[in-house]
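Design job #97: recover the sequence.
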């Protein structure tokens, strides 16, 4: 079965989708490299914390008609960007991504959520391209464990706590300027970069305006259509590159999100200890 937009509901992945010329992607990749080499002390934070709200040229990339047209085919006409981030692996830096489902900690409902993975450099098995288990999004939410492993590029090193060795795996090979779209519940991960050049993916998380954040109110960017739900405080394009206002927006969004995630984790652990109590009482 081809992994195209027409089969996305069955496979959970659509790839490759051409969204910009290879030469433009290479130019953008050079801008990312220049920023990384600039000595700015907040480089890592900026590249990980919704950089589409910090750099007008990344906002433009995330909202290109070629990107939004493809996303609209999956999520419908009213689209928000919930977040964006870079996943960069330098040659032989050992960075990898454990098998996981994105849905695990995001607290978004329902699960009509898609990630655009836009390649700014070649993404191949040698450079550690993303790998997905097509169809695994139909398994719903699987249990995960946090490993906090140093080389894992995920913040908690989360990985699925089920044996996935029997699943079919697809290498999502992309040329610079191509993207894939994946479902929030597809099982995916990636190996380290063993090629001589960096693997650079710009990742944009899209939701329809009907999706809501459980446990609190945070920020999203309306990029197509209308928002008749009002589940998020809406932001627009950044007013310049790394401006004070742009940073304020990003830091505020990050703080709100962290608070929600912390409160959700606390509620989950108190629910679990209550269950233990109940279990203990029942057993005694
Ligand atoms: O870039 C990678 O290798 C993994 C990306 C990923 O986990 C994601 O986009 O959700």
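Job complete. Output follows.
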């Amino acid at each position: 079965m081809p992994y195209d937009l027409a089969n996305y509901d069955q496979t959970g992945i659509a790839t490759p989708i051409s969204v910009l010329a290879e030469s433009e992607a290479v130019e953008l990749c050079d801008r990312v490299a220049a920023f990384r080499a600039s000595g700015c002390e907040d480089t890592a934070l900026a590249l990980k914390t919704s950089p589409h709200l910090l750099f007008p040229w990344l906002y433009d990339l995330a909202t290109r008609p070629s990107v939004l047209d493809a996303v609209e085919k999956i999520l419908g006409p009213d689209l928000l960007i919930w977040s964006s981030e870079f996943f960069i692996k330098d040659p032989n830096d050992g960075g990898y991504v454990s098998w996981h489902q994105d849905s695990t900690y995001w607290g978004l409902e329902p699960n009509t959520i898609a990630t655009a993975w836009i390649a700014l450099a070649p993404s191949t098995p040698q450079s550690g391209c993303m790998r997905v288990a097509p169809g695994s999004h139909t398994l719903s939410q699987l249990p995960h464990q946090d490993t906090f492993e140093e080389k894992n590029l995920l913040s908690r090193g989360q990985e699925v706590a089920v044996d996935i060795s029997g699943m079919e795996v697809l290498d999502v090979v992309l040329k610079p300027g191509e993207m894939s779209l994946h479902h929030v519940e597809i099982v995916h991960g990636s190996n380290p970069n063993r090629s001589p050049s960096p693997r650079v993916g710009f990742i944009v998380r899209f939701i329809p305006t009907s999706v809501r954040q459980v446990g609190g109110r945070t920020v999203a960017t309306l990029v197509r259509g209308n928002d008749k739900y009002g589940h998020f405080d809406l932001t627009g394009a950044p007013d310049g590159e790394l401006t004070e206002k742009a940073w304020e927006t990003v830091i505020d969004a990050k703080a709100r999100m962290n608070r929600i995630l912390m409160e959700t984790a606390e509620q989950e652990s108190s629910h679990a200890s209550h269950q233990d109590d109940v279990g203990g009482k029942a057993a005694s």
